[in-house]
Amino acid sequence: MYSISPCPVVTTKTITSFKIDRIEISLFKSAVITVILLDSAGSLLDLKFVNMTGEDYSRWSADDSYVVEFIKQSLGFSDVVKPPVTETAIEITIAETPVAPPTETSTETSTETSTETSTETSTETSTETSTETL
Q: Has residue 106 got a pLDDT over 70?
Protein backbone atom coordinates (compact mmCIF):
# COMPACT_ATOMS: atom_id res chain seq x y z
CA MET A 1 0.00 0.00 0.00
CA TYR A 2 1.28 3.47 -0.91
CA SER A 3 0.35 6.59 1.04
CA ILE A 4 -0.85 9.68 -0.84
CA SER A 5 -2.19 13.08 0.05
CA PRO A 6 -5.93 13.00 0.72
CA CYS A 7 -7.91 13.36 -2.50
CA PRO A 8 -11.66 14.07 -2.52
CA VAL A 9 -13.93 11.63 -4.34
CA VAL A 10 -17.27 12.92 -5.60
CA THR A 11 -20.17 10.50 -5.83
CA THR A 12 -23.44 11.56 -7.42
CA LYS A 13 -26.63 10.12 -6.00
CA THR A 14 -30.15 10.95 -7.15
CA ILE A 15 -32.77 12.12 -4.67
CA THR A 16 -36.21 10.84 -5.68
CA SER A 17 -38.26 11.58 -2.56
CA PHE A 18 -38.16 13.07 0.89
CA LYS A 19 -39.81 12.59 4.28
CA ILE A 20 -40.50 15.14 6.96
CA ASP A 21 -39.00 13.66 10.10
CA ARG A 22 -39.90 16.33 12.65
CA ILE A 23 -40.81 19.97 12.98
CA GLU A 24 -39.57 22.07 15.89
CA ILE A 25 -41.81 25.09 16.37
CA SER A 26 -41.21 28.37 18.15
CA LEU A 27 -44.81 29.55 18.53
CA PHE A 28 -45.73 32.63 16.52
CA LYS A 29 -42.15 32.88 15.26
CA SER A 30 -40.60 30.03 13.24
CA ALA A 31 -40.22 26.34 12.53
CA VAL A 32 -37.19 24.15 11.86
CA ILE A 33 -38.12 21.18 9.68
CA THR A 34 -35.93 18.06 9.59
CA VAL A 35 -36.09 16.57 6.08
CA ILE A 36 -34.81 13.10 5.15
CA LEU A 37 -33.69 12.78 1.52
CA LEU A 38 -34.13 9.35 -0.08
CA ASP A 39 -33.14 7.58 -3.30
CA SER A 40 -35.40 5.36 -5.45
CA ALA A 41 -34.71 2.34 -3.20
CA GLY A 42 -35.79 4.33 -0.12
CA SER A 43 -32.23 4.54 1.21
CA LEU A 44 -31.14 7.56 3.24
CA LEU A 45 -28.95 9.93 1.24
CA ASP A 46 -28.86 13.03 3.41
CA LEU A 47 -30.52 15.01 6.18
CA LYS A 48 -31.45 18.69 5.76
CA PHE A 49 -32.79 21.31 8.15
CA VAL A 50 -35.16 23.80 6.57
CA ASN A 51 -35.96 27.01 8.45
CA MET A 52 -39.38 28.59 8.03
CA THR A 53 -39.53 32.10 9.46
CA GLY A 54 -41.34 35.41 9.18
CA GLU A 55 -43.98 35.71 6.49
CA ASP A 56 -43.47 32.09 5.36
CA TYR A 57 -44.27 30.88 8.88
CA SER A 58 -47.29 33.22 9.08
CA ARG A 59 -48.76 31.76 5.83
CA TRP A 60 -48.73 28.25 7.29
CA SER A 61 -52.22 27.68 8.62
CA ALA A 62 -54.18 24.45 8.98
CA ASP A 63 -53.06 23.30 5.52
CA ASP A 64 -49.94 21.16 6.02
CA SER A 65 -49.44 20.79 2.27
CA TYR A 66 -48.02 24.34 2.51
CA VAL A 67 -45.05 22.86 4.44
CA VAL A 68 -44.41 20.26 1.72
CA GLU A 69 -44.48 22.93 -1.00
CA PHE A 70 -42.23 25.20 1.10
CA ILE A 71 -39.65 22.38 1.44
CA LYS A 72 -39.75 21.67 -2.30
CA GLN A 73 -39.17 25.34 -3.06
CA SER A 74 -36.44 25.76 -0.41
CA LEU A 75 -34.47 22.74 -1.59
CA GLY A 76 -35.05 23.37 -5.31
CA PHE A 77 -37.18 20.29 -5.93
CA SER A 78 -39.93 20.03 -8.51
CA ASP A 79 -42.95 17.77 -8.80
CA VAL A 80 -42.82 14.56 -10.76
CA VAL A 81 -44.35 15.12 -14.18
CA LYS A 82 -47.01 12.49 -14.70
CA PRO A 83 -47.68 11.51 -18.31
CA PRO A 84 -51.20 12.29 -19.46
CA VAL A 85 -53.60 9.40 -19.33
CA THR A 86 -54.91 8.53 -22.76
CA GLU A 87 -57.91 6.37 -23.35
CA THR A 88 -57.68 3.82 -26.11
CA ALA A 89 -60.81 2.44 -27.72
CA ILE A 90 -60.86 -1.32 -27.89
CA GLU A 91 -63.05 -3.02 -30.47
CA ILE A 92 -64.46 -6.35 -29.41
CA THR A 93 -66.02 -8.69 -31.95
CA ILE A 94 -68.35 -11.33 -30.61
CA ALA A 95 -68.86 -14.28 -32.92
CA GLU A 96 -72.32 -15.78 -32.82
CA THR A 97 -72.51 -19.51 -32.34
CA PRO A 98 -75.21 -21.05 -34.53
CA VAL A 99 -77.91 -22.86 -32.60
CA ALA A 100 -78.98 -26.20 -34.04
CA PRO A 101 -82.73 -26.42 -34.73
CA PRO A 102 -84.62 -28.76 -32.41
CA THR A 103 -85.02 -32.28 -33.73
CA GLU A 104 -88.47 -33.74 -34.30
CA THR A 105 -89.27 -36.94 -32.53
CA SER A 106 -92.58 -38.71 -32.57
CA THR A 107 -93.17 -41.66 -30.33
CA GLU A 108 -96.82 -42.19 -31.20
CA THR A 109 -97.69 -45.28 -33.24
CA SER A 110 -101.36 -44.61 -34.03
CA THR A 111 -103.08 -44.72 -37.34
CA GLU A 112 -101.75 -42.75 -40.26
CA THR A 113 -104.30 -39.96 -39.76
CA SER A 114 -103.32 -39.58 -36.13
CA THR A 115 -99.63 -39.63 -37.05
CA GLU A 116 -100.16 -36.91 -39.64
CA THR A 117 -102.02 -34.77 -37.14
CA SER A 118 -99.36 -35.43 -34.60
CA THR A 119 -96.65 -34.51 -37.13
CA GLU A 120 -98.41 -31.28 -38.06
CA THR A 121 -98.80 -30.32 -34.46
CA SER A 122 -95.21 -31.24 -33.81
CA THR A 123 -94.06 -29.12 -36.80
CA GLU A 124 -96.06 -26.12 -35.62
CA THR A 125 -94.63 -26.43 -32.16
CA SER A 126 -91.14 -26.77 -33.62
CA THR A 127 -91.61 -23.64 -35.76
CA GLU A 128 -92.82 -21.67 -32.77
CA THR A 129 -89.90 -22.81 -30.69
CA SER A 130 -87.51 -21.99 -33.49
CA THR A 131 -88.92 -18.49 -33.79
CA GLU A 132 -88.60 -17.88 -30.06
CA THR A 133 -85.01 -19.15 -30.01
CA LEU A 134 -83.88 -16.81 -32.77
A: no
For residue 117, what are the contacts with CB-CB under 8 A and spacing of at least 6? none
Closest CA to 36 of 48, 50, 51, 27: 48
Please report the DSSP string for 15-82 in residue order: --EEEEEEEEEETTTEEEEEEEEE-TT--EEEEEEEEEEHHHHHH--S-THHHHHHHHHHHT--PPPP
Q: Are 35 and 75 in contact (CB under 8 A)?
A: yes
Residue ranges per structural domain of the chain: 17-75
pTM: 0.55
Residue range 109-122, pLDDT digits in tens: 544 444 444 444 44
- Contact indicator for 16, 40 with CB cutoff of 8 Å: yes
